[in-house]
Amino acid sequence: MFKLEESENLIAVFRKHIFYFLTQIVGLVFVAIMPFFLYLFSKSFFSLEISYQSVYLFLFVYLIFLTILWHIGFVLWTDYYLDMWVLTDKRLIDVEQKRLFSREVSSVRLDNIQDIKLEILGFIHTFVGMGSVHVQTAGSQKEFVIHNAKNPEQVKEFILSAHNKQMESTKTVRIENPTNQNTSSQNV
Amino acid sequence: MLSNSFLSLDEILSKIPLSALWIGFGIFVVISFVIGLALLFHWRKYKLYSLATDTTQIVYIIGLLTLIILCGISLSLFSIS
Fold first, then answer.
1. Which one, A35, A118, A179, B27, has least CB within 10 Å?
2. Is A41 on the interface with B (CB under 8 A)?
3. What is the ipTM of this complex?
């Protein structure tokens, strides 16, 4: 968990595209209906006549199977929702949800950002507006990457805009003359 | 009837003791609730700027309880029949 500094303002929160989560859920739904396909498949090879008593038992086993899938679905949602980038007016924070109870939070000050690269691969990514954003930082800090981000161009714009504002504010020096009380700004 | 030369499926199923099924179901419910509590704890601990937090929790809990209740109903029907 991280906390924002007192004078720090939140600008935006970026997450993976919902399409990424939906593909995982579609896979889970496919696994959930797989027993019906298996039943139909085996019915075509064997003469299946199951008594109604056995149907209840199969239903019981199937519902247990669905309960396990329900847990897995929630884990997938947790992984999707808690994996994010937080952009403030001072820094970019990368919250990476690795596994359950295992996460990595790293941040880079906006003035340390050197380059931002977009990666949109393939038709589907272009069609749904999904891609990876790579942020390269100064020094030996790691490269920040958000995979399968929603609207990567917009993410890049937000970060660049915040970065430029930060650079301008650090370059402005206010010089005050105590004798004639005149105040002027000078760009260094 | 799904059968081979020795046993039919119904005969195999009828040999499973009911008490074993209920004990197994009880263990599954306990494990399921423990997993559920761990997932909710994890979710609440790491939530941040999440508008859908409460909704997510409620949907997850309702879904889990519904599935477990349906499991219990189906096992009860199997026991009665």
1. A179
2. no
3. 0.84
